[in-house]
C-alpha cells in the first residue's frame, strides 16, 4: 500500500464535520466507475477526488484510505443486487439473497471485489476495513433470516448461526475466487438447497 492510501490515523477516519450526502454519493459513484475502469490497485485517491469533485483532504476526513471508499462502493452495489428479503420463508429469503450475491460476483464488480479480498490476505488494514465495513453488515442480514427461520420452526435451533451462514455464503465466495464453476441463479438455488438439507427441521 502506498503512502497515498494511508492517513495518519491508520484504519480510522479522521474527525470532521458530518458527510454531505450529495458529496458522499459523488465519491462512491466515482469510485465505482474508477474501480471498473482501472481496478483496485491502479485506482488512486487523486482520481477519486478529480472524478467526484470532492477534495482529497475531504475524502480523507471521511474514509481512512481508498480501500475504505471501495468498500462503501461495493456495499452500495451489493445493496442494489442483493437486498435483504423477508418473504416469510427462510428458504426463499436465502435463495433471493444468494441469487443477488451471485449476480454481483459474476459481474464486473465481482472481479474487482476479488482483488479487494486478495489484498486483505496480505494487508491487515485492508482486512479490517473489509470485515468491518462490508462483511459484518452482509452477514447481519443473513443472521436475521436465520433467526426468523428458527423462530418459525423452519430451521434447527441447535446449530451455530455463524456456521450455518458460512455454509450458505462459502460456496459462492469459493466459486468467485477459484473460478471453477458458474455463479448464477441455478448455482444459488443448488447451494441453498444443499445447505438447508442439513439445516432445516
TrEMBL record:
Protein name: TetR family transcriptional regulator
GO molecular function: DNA-binding transcription factor activity; transcription cis-regulatory region binding
Domain HTH tetR-type: residue ranges: 21-81
Any Pfam family matching the protein: TetR_N
InterPro entries in UniProt: Homeodomain-like_sf (IPR009057), HTH-type_TetR-like_transc_reg (IPR050109), HTH_TetR (IPR001647), Tet_transcr_reg_TetR-rel_C_sf (IPR036271), TetR_C (IPR011075)
Alphabetical UniProt keywords: DNA-binding, Transcription, Transcription regulation
DNA-binding region per UniProt: 44-63
Region (Disordered): 1-26
Comp. bias regions, Basic and acidic residues: 8-22
Amino acid at each position: 500500500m502506498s503512502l497515498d492510501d494511508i492517513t495518519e490515523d491508520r484504519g480510522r477516519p479522521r474527525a470532521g464535520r458530518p458527510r454531505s450526502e450529495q458529496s458522499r454519493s459523488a465519491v462512491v459513484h466515482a469510485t465505482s466507475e474508477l474501480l471498473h475502469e482501472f481496478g483496485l490497485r491502479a485506482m488512486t485517491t487523486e482520481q477519486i477526488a478529480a472524478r467526484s469533485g470532492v477534495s482529497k483532504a475531504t475524502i480523507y476526513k471521511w474514509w481512512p484510505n481508498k480501500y475504505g471508499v471501495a468498500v462503501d462502493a461495493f456495499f452500495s452495489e451489493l445493496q442494489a443486487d442483493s437486498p435483504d428479503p423477508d418473504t416469510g420463508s427462510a428458504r426463499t429469503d436465502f435463495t433471493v439473497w444468494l441469487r443477488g450475491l451471485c449476480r454481483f460476483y459474476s459481474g464486473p464488480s465481482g472481479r474487482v471485489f476479488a482483488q479487494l479480498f486478495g489484498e486483505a490476505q496480505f494487508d491487515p488494514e485492508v482486512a479490517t476495513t473489509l470485515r468491518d465495513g462490508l462483511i459484518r453488515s452482509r452477514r447481519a442480514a443473513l443472521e436475521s433470516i436465520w433467526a426468523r427461520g428458527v423462530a418459525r420452526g423452519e430451521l434447527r435451533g441447535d446449530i451455530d448461526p455463524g456456521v450455518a451462514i458460512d455454509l450458505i455464503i462459502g460456496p459462492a465466495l469459493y466459486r468467485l475466487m477459484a473460478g471453477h464453476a458458474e455463479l448464477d441463479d441455478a448455482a444459488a438455488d443448488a447451494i441453498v438447497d444443499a445447505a438447508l438439507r442439513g439445516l432445516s427441521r
